[in-house]
Amino acid sequence: MDIERLRADTPGVGHVIHFNNAGAALMPRPVIEAVTDHLHREARFGGYEAAGQQAQALEDVYTAIGRLINAQPAEIAVIENATRAWDMAFYSLPLRPGDVVLTSTTEYAGNYIPYLQLQRQRGIELRIIPNDEHGQVCLAALKTLLDDERVALVSLPVIATNGGPVQPIEQIGALTRAAGKLFLLDACQGVGQMPLDVQKIGCHMLAATSRKYLRGPRGMGFLYVEQSLCQTLEPAFLDLHAASLLTAQTFAIRDDARRFENWECNVAAKLGLGAAVAYALTQGIEPMWLRIQGLASHLREQLAAVLGVTVQDRGALRSGIVTFTHRTTSATQLQQWLAGQARPINVSTSRVGSTLLDMQQRDLPEISRASLHAYNTHAEIEALVQALHRLPGG
Ligand SMILES: *Cc1c(COP(=O)(O)O)cnc(C)c1O
């Protein structure tokens, strides 16, 4: 990979050492331009007229996302964030009393709360798939759980928001398909970081966000729904974009995945998402994934040598999200200390509330999260490690 080029494309690297790519990555120039150019067009020509001029570019967003995850453009809906994209799929599933949903200990609270809501409202049952010795979904346990005919859905994140294992999603998908059950994948931390191919994974639905490893603008995301399933899923919400009013008594829902969208959206951000996907495809997802894994394992080795620091990551396969704790300094204080360096170092803090089961199981109230992207460097990692060495009382 041409790292110099990657950094030259990223104005933010001149100001901060950015290790919060799992929160929101630094946007590359083509994304910034796609968004700002469109805002200028809206100011100049009017919002509807500007969107009309960009009609083809807006269609290309679906094609690009389709290429990224190996799906058809008609299987993609562009939705304002991953949570809403996920919700549109989840709340459309015809789950009935007694239906079982299987998830992992690494599930994101934003998805877990809807499970509990449907448990209360519709009487579904939630079961947690046990982990294996690596802290990831135990495939043998999943296979046994899938024997229960009441299982309707397997739903989990490929990578948790607080790091940890890259789940064996292709094996999970194969088992789930073989059992004839639906698989909803939360790909928020995977998209833009690692290769994701919905055909290989065998997921029926996938939700993702724009601002994380994809490096797109905030307030954007997308949903994939497999063509054959799409037409059988009735969205929980409909509007005049998802459906059309035929007579005073009848309406028809669109055939494609855009039935999960709604009419009004941030057009500039949608174009920005398209530019981010195109940029990622140009860099090559495979080389980026190798680079990210290399940087992350280097950081883990360096952190392990800092007195008082414990690396908290688990998993047979690990991602660019590196998590750690310090013996005497809280993650919140660490984040502040690093942000206050002459050249600010951005890390974030993952708290128990975002991945409750996992954090409680490991007895961790909070952890520091340094999430690396391909544009990060060994020199930046060194700066982080040195700043930790200088920690007062560390
Ligand atoms: C960030 C994240 C989400 C939520 O994405 P939004 O775009 O903020 O809605 C969901 N799941 C995981 C694993 C995440 O990391």
TrEMBL record:
User: What domain of life is recorded for the organism?
Assistant: Bacteria
- Asked whether the UniProt record includes Transferase among its keywords, one would answer yes
Q: Name one GO molecular function term.
A: transaminase activity
Keyword annotations for this protein, in alphabetical order, are:
Aminotransferase, Pyridoxal phosphate, Transferase
All residue ranges annotated as the Aminotransferase class V domain in the record? 18-384
Q: Name one Pfam family in it.
A: Aminotran_5
Task: List required co-factors.
Answer: pyridoxal 5'-phosphate
**InterPro entries the UniProt entry points to:** Aminotrans_V_dom, Aminotrans_V_PyrdxlP_BS, PyrdxlP-dep_Trfase, PyrdxlP-dep_Trfase_major, PyrdxlP-dep_Trfase_small
Q: Does the keyword Transferase apply?
A: yes
Q: Which Gene3D superfamilies match?
A: Aspartate Aminotransferase, domain 1, Type I PLP-dependent aspartate aminotransferase-like (Major domain)
Q: Which family does it belong to?
A: Belongs to the class-V pyridoxal-phosphate-dependent aminotransferase family.
What is the protein name for this chain? Aminotransferase class V-fold PLP-dependent enzyme
Organism of this sequence: Pseudomonas citrulli
